[in-house]
Each structure stands twice: as C-alpha cells, then as structure tokens.
Fold this protein.
Amino acid sequence: MSIAFILGMPLIASALILLPLKQYWAGVITVVSSLVILVLAVRVALFVSTGKIVTSALGIGLLKWVSVDGLSGLILLLVAFIGTTAAIYSVGYMAHGNFPPRKIRIYYINFNLFVFSMLAIPILAEPTLVWISVALTTLTSALIVSFEDTREALEAAWKYVVLSLMGAGMALFGFLLLFSALQASGSDAAFTWSGLAQAGPGMPPALLQVAFLLILIGLGTKVGLVPMHTWLPDAHSQAPSPVCALLSGIETSAILYVILRLFPIMQATPGAHATTWAIVLGLISAGTAAFLLLQVGDYKRMFAFSTVEHMGIILTAVGIGAAGADYAALQQIISHSVTKSFCFFAAGAVLLNLRTRKIASVRGLIRRSPFTGAALVFGGLAITGAPPLAVFLSELSILRAGLSQTDYVAMGLLSLFILIAFFGVMLKINQMVFGLPDDGVMQNTPYDYTVEHKFRLPFTCRLAMILSAAPVLVLGLYVHPATAAEPADSGR
Amino acid sequence: MTDQLLDNLNALVTGLFLLTAFGIVAMRQTRGVLNLFIFQSILLALSALFLGLRYQSEHLYGVALVNVIIKPLILPWLLKKTAPEEVYTRREVNQALNIPTALLIALALVILAYFLGQPLLNAVAPEFRGPNVPIGIAGLLLGAFTITVRREAVPLLIGILAMENGAFLSGIAISRKLPLLVELAIATDGLIVVFIMGVLTRAVHRHVGTTAVGELANLKENVSVPAGSEEAG
C-alpha cells in the first residue's frame, strides 16, 4: 500500500501547488511531500532488507507490474533521500534568486514530477514501463534545466532532451527485442525483471545480445557514459543547483540501475560478453572524465565530469563480475549519490554567494564565507575518495574485489584515473577556497575583493547540506560486517 | 483476403515507410517533414492492421488505432499549440551535410540495417520474419541520422519520433503481444515529447530569436568557459 502512496505523493504535491496559495507554500508542500516519501521509502527498504519482495496486492492495471526487491528498494531509498535534501535546499535557493512567483510555481511542479518519474524507475518491474519512466525523467526535468532561461541554459536543456531521447529510442528497440526474446524462449514467465532472469537460459542469444547492447548504449547516453556523455556537463551545470544534485546524484544512478538489471539475464547467455562491455565502457568513461577534469574552467562542470567518472567506476565494478564486486558497486552507488548531491549543494552555495560559475573568478572563498568554503573542501575531498569518507571505502572495496579477481590491468588503470581525478578536483578547489586574489585573473569578476562582506547562506540550504553530509561521514566510518569479510570468490 | 495478398500489402507499406524515412532526412521544408512523418505514422498503422489481419491478432488492431489517432491527429495539433508559428515557415538551408551526401549515408545505413537485422531474423520463429524488422531498424537508424544532421527544432523533434516509429515497425512484427496499455503509454510519451520540445522551442525563440536550435552548439565554449581552457563537452 505504501508503494502506491510513494508514487501518489509527488502527484498530489504537484496538484496542490497549482492551488492559488502564496508562493511560500509551494516550497513547504514539496518539502512535506518529500519527507512523507522518505518515511515510506524507509519503511519499504526495511521490509525488503529482510529478503522479502513488495508487490502490489491489487492485481489491476499498472499496479500488477509493481514490485520492489532489495536492489530497487535501495534505489528507491536513495531517490527519496536526495529528493528530500534537494527539496529543503530548493526553499532557500529559490527564495534567494528573485524569480517571479509563476516561475517558482513551475519549478516546484516540475521538481515533484521529476521526483515522481525517478521513483517510478525502481518501483516498476515491467521493462517497457521502466523505459517510459526513464523517458519521463528527461521530459519532466527539461524545463527545470532551462529554468534560468539564459541562452546557455536553453542550449543545455535542448541538447539534454535531444540526446537523451535519441538514446531512449535506441533503448526502446532494445526492450522490444527483450520482449520478443522472452516470447521466443517459449517460457510463460511474465515480462518483468524477475521473469526475464528466470527465462534467461531459454532465450535466443542473438536477440539478447543485440537487446543488451542497444539498451546499454541507449540508456548509457542518459547515464553519461563516454562517448555519449556530451550533454551531461552542460545540463548538469546549467540547471539550478538543487536540480543538479538530483540529476547528478541520483538520476544517473537510477538509470544505471536499469542497466544493472540486465546483467542477471545476460549471465545465463553464453558468449554474451556483457561484463566485458561493462569494463570497457566503464574504464573509457572513468579515464576520459578524469583527464577532462584537469582542464575544466567551471566548477559545476567539474562536478558533472566527476559524475561521468563515477558512473565509469561503478560500471567497471559491475564488469568485474564477482559477488564482492557487485556489493562494492552498490556501495559506490550509495556513496556517490549522497556525496555528489552534497557537492552540488556546496557548488550552489558558491554560486548564490558569488554569482559566477568560473573557477578562475573565485578566490579566497574561506575568508568571504567560511561555511561555504569549508563545505566545498569537504565535498571535494569526499567525492575524490579521501579517507575517512564514504567514497573512499566504496572505491577501496571495488579495488579489493577487482584484485581478488586478478583484474590487475583494469584495477591499475582505475586507481590511476581515481588519482588523476583527485588531483584535478582538489587543485581547483584549493585555488577557489584558499587562493589569493590574482589581479590578472580577477579583472572582470562580479564582486569586489577589497570590500569586507560576509555572506550568509539561507538556513534551509545549510540544513540540507548538513543532512546530506551526515551519511557521507557515517558511511565512511561505519563498516558493515558483510563488507569487512573477504569477498567471496565463487562468482555471483 | 488471402495471406499472400496481406503479405504483399505489408511489404508495400513497409517499403513506403522506408521512403518516408529517407524523405525525413532530406526534405528541407519544415512543414513537409511534418507531413512526411504523419504519412509515415499512417503507414505504420496500416502495417499493424495488415499484420493483425494476417495473424488474427486483435491486439495489433489496437496498435493501429492508437497510431492513427495520436500521431496524425493529436500530435500536429499539440505542436501547433506549443511551438512558435515561425517553425512552419522555416526552410532549412544549412544542414550539417548537403542533401546528396546525407542521402548516400542514409543508403549505407539501410544496408547496415539489413545486415543487423539478419541475425535477429534467424533467431525468431518463421512467422515473425518479414520486411518489418530490417526496415524498422533502418527507420531507427535514419531517425538517429536525421537528428545528427538537422538543426531546425521541428525536424529534430520529428527525427526522435521517427526513431520511435522505426522501433515500433519492428516491434509489431516480433513482439506482437506487448500489452496494449504499454503501447498506449509509449504513444502518450510521444505527446509529452512534443509538448516539452515545443515549449523549449518557444523559449529558445523568445530568448535567442531563432528556431535553428542546432546552431546554439557553437556558443557554448565561448560563453561559459574562460578562454584558454577547452572542453570536449
């Protein structure tokens, strides 16, 4: 029952925002609705963590395709958590931006619909319906990516929509092939993730292979895998920061989850090389992004490229293909989601403060706004995998799992890329936070360094940042007994 | 009607489908591209109808009905409501490639589609074999190609929808029993695509003064990235 509420809440919230209330209420409604979703998602997650599967009791219409197991419960929880922190952050961010009330209303309506489409991805178990949810994430977020209505924001939104939908078209054909493969297998299993995994061995390998590649490339566009990533840094840097946190933090992971769902199906197919594809694409993405990180000039684009890098790392971990590596990949999804959303909150705080996205125009942040500066350093350290934070632990488990599978070359490259990314990001953050103003660079900055002016971040923004920093710290310090044990060597 | 006749009719319709896909790549007038797309959707519906009659599948009648109502009727109306009036009068003169080159590449893509389709056809039962799968793949590839060479908003949008049409043309042959509800949802999704892209086009037209959205691409690096640092993004 709570599943139906989870999906219903954002829709109800969007409808309520349409009521002619004071604009203040739009934010309050969104925050309350996301808190309710979070509570329900925690309940569902606790339920599925015991190994049970939530299905809808009502066997009618769309509801018969609803099913949440452990993996989807995890994604559901992450969507709900980041949805909540982003909603809280939005309140302060929007109030600070001098936007007309009508635009703010449109923002919150789209925000809720966007969260709805992302919640639907893990909840639905019928692949073509999941495809529709994925397409909906693009469509519901397009208008908030272009929210600021500048030339660049519109261009970013346009690229985002065109490339994502192009990928979606490819993936649609892949899902239709998956359906025909299921029919060709002669099994009467339902067209759901579990039904497909069950019928896996009987399906014609040719169909499965083509379907897998089409879906990997089609949805990979949305995940931001190189070379289909070109839209990502644009969209993830031009959108308002709370939306960036959603786009980068969870949308990419939620869609990667759909790709992950194919691996149990592909495993039964001999000669499908699904894991090889994952490792190759993963390493290319992580490597390209690491080198691009060295030369970005815009700090929001920097975090966006870091998302591409992390998606590559996760896909590589999946490609290693052992139980320990799968566990590590999930750990990395969790730690990336919470950390990246924090990073974009910190980047948004800098943007609210200084009104510029250029790294070269930001110097000495720590003196102007100690909270923002400290948050940026924390975010940078956390996302590049410094101990004792969440990403460090998850990257460590990926490397450990890879080495125990004797994937020395892949792990060597991966650690090299992680190292490059660390220096790329921290060098720039160090300049921004502690660097001294340099006259040559600073000529056309929009603010005056000589004037002592302290900036105070809105309270809700601070609250959202503290809330999302908590799991980054906790997941870095607390090691679950299952991870501490040696990863099992026995395949999946 | 005999099965032979239905097969022939289906072959005729899918052949015309391929021609419209070529037209969408090359036609310059925006209005012409839209009309070709409408014609293509009707052909898709006809193919679903013929296959439905051939294999007595009521389900495919539903697909035909959904396609014939949503794409030729509701979709152009919605586009008219959302996108600025100017898009219809536009004539695209500066495509990324000139038309003969684009058509040659399109031809190569069709041959590629036949090669890609062959292993798929071998993997399914004989009753699923027919012209639909390779032509559907060709439609998908030509749609993607349209997106890469076009710069005007509406032809780009039509490219996306043509990809979906291509996927469906294969789909009605090989995944015949897909629930109608899902088909309906996918078609509705197409409407949302039109709505969102129409609204975006309107915003671009208002703020930038053009509907040739493809040309926005060059501005990016100069505006938001300081000189001296280049990015692939």
